[in-house]
Amino acid sequence: MMHHRPNIDWMLKDLAESVPQTRHVVVLSADGLRMAQYGTDHDTADRLAAACAGLQSLSTAVASEFPHGDGRMRMVVIEVGGGFFYLMAAGAGAYLAVLADEGVDPGLIGQRMRDLVARIGAHLTSPPRVDGLVG
């Protein structure tokens, strides 16, 4: 029988409902697989997760230019016409992504994302992949 990750969707809902203008919340693995979501359909969440894997890779390349840093991405923020995209490291091999409308309070969303990462700790840790299967 396959081991299932604890359901963390309610925690994502809590983040979305506590920050006005939040549109989508997705948790993904480092290799771009959707682990949990709130406020979006599977197709949108899968597209966001795949894009996040690329962003994580790019941010690691940029981080390597800081000689005294640890080389790890902590948060990426992208502002586009219509809103913001946030990507935050959330445990070993996992990331938290949020899409929000342009009226969102950037300080509040950043704080709520940090709070969520701290709250669910081990739940967001992606198990190692073995022969294409997630443990």
Automatic annotation (TrEMBL):
Keywords on record: Membrane, Transmembrane, Transmembrane helix
Segments traversing the membrane: 76-98
A Pfam family assignment: Robl_LC7
Domain Roadblock/LAMTOR2, chain residue ranges per copy: 9-100
Keyword field contains GTP-binding: no
Keyword Transmembrane helix: yes
The name this protein goes by in its record: Roadblock/LC7 domain-containing protein
